[in-house]
Amino acid sequence: MPRGIQLTIVCEDILHEVFARAFLYRRGFRRHDLRFEKAPSGKQDAKQCVRERFPTELAALRRYGGAGRGLLCITDSDNLTPVERANTLHECCARQNVAPPAATELVFIFTPKWEIENWLAWLRDGACDETSNAYDKYRNREADIYPLVEHLADMCMAKALNPQPAPPSLLAACSVFAGFQTWVEDSNGGA
User: Fold this and answer.
1) How far separated are the first and last CA of the chain, in Å rounded?
2) Is 66 inside any structural domain?
3) pLDDT above 60: residue 18
4) CA angle 133, 162, 16 (to 5 degrees)
5) 3-class DSSP string for the chain
6) 31 burial type by CB count under 10 A (0-12 exposed, 13-18 middle, 19+ buried)
7) Burial, 162: exposed, middle or buried (Cβ in 10 Å; 0-12, 13-18, 19+)?
8) Per the domain annotation, does 64 fall within a domain?
9) Which of 20, 33, 96, 130 gets the highest tally of CB atoms within 10 A of its CB?
10) What total number of domains does the chain contain?
11) What is the distance between the alpha carbons of residues 50 and 33, in angstroms, rounded to a whole number?
12) What pTM was computed for the model?
């Protein structure tokens, strides 16, 4: 159970928020350990909002840092690769005169290829096409993803995504999760 941890999550929408909550609650986080910065509904492009908010939250993490503070960003890759989407975040940092995250910082970026619904389709059906955005959107049914995401959290913890092949962007996210889990354990004195 994480203690003394404050994690800020920058994400696009309610589905990303519910995904993060389900994943993090399964890993032992509590509601008061998490602070969400979600794009306002219908105000502007959600990805643009995430790109603008990420450098602000990264600067705040550095200003008010500590062993128990971290930043998680969840943004869909759409037609970019996950690396290209992460690079757009780094470019926004540069435009706001904020150095991009260093490998040693407690910054974690999840970038589902095309959209997070693809990961959910794989979790539900065992297969998905990461070049498609034709999957169930879970509008007004976001709570339905909890069991899927809890199962994903368990698989990431066990380092065994099944069935194979898992979507490449999800494999990459589970790799990021390994560093995330190390941070949580270190923050709790190796627990």
Assistant:
1) 8
2) yes
3) yes
4) 40
5) CCCCCEEEEEECCHHHHHHHHHHHHHCCCCHHHEEEEECCCCCCCHHHHHHHHHHHHHHHHHHCCCCCEEEEEECCCECCCHHHHHHHHHHHHHHCCCCCCCCCCCEEEECCCECHHHHHHHHHHCCCCCCCCCCCCCCCCHHHHHHHHHHHHHHHHHCCCCCCCCCHHHHHHHHHHHHHHHHHHHHCCCC
6) exposed
7) exposed
8) yes
9) 20
10) 1
11) 20
12) 0.92
> For residue 101, with 0-12 CB atoms within 10 Å meaning exposed, 13-18 middle and 19 or more buried, which class applies?
buried
Amino acid of residue 160: A
Residue 24 has which token pair? 């993090």
In angstroms, the CA 148 to CA 68 distance is 28
Model confidence pLDDT, tens digit, residues 35-76: 999 999 877 799 999 999 999 999 999 998 777 899 999 999
Rounded-to-integer distance, Cα 32 and Cα 2, Å: 11
User: What is the domain extent for residue 90?
Assistant: 6-187
Measure the CA–CA gap between 146 and 86, rounded to whole angstroms: 26
Q: Are 51 and 93 in contact (CB under 8 A)?
A: no
Q: Give the span between the Cα atoms of 153 and 151, in whole angstroms.
A: 5
